[in-house]
Amino acid sequence: MEPTRLALVGAGVIGRTHIDRIQRDPQLRLAGIADPTPGGQALAASLGVPWAADHRRLLDDVRPQGAIVATPNATHVPVATDCLERGIPALVEKPVADSVADAQRLVEAEARCQTPVLVGHHRRHNPINRRAKALIAEGRLGRLVAATALALFLKPDAYFDVAWRRQAGGGPVLINLIHDIDMLRFLVGDIESVQAADSHAVRGFEVEDSAAAVLRFANGALGTITVSDAAASPWCWDFCAGEQVQYPRQEVQSHFIAGTHGSLSLPDLALWHYRGERSWHAELTREQTTVHQADPYARQLQHFADVISGRAAPLCSALDGLRTLQATLAVHEAAVSGQAVSCTLAG
Ligand SMILES: NC(=O)c1ccc[n+]([C@@H]2O[C@H](COP(=O)([O-])OP(=O)(O)OC[C@H]3O[C@@H](n4cnc5c(N)ncnc54)[C@H](O)[C@@H]3O)[C@@H](O)[C@H]2O)c1
Question: Nearest C-alpha to atom 5 of ligand 1 is from which residue?
Answer without folding.
Answer: 14
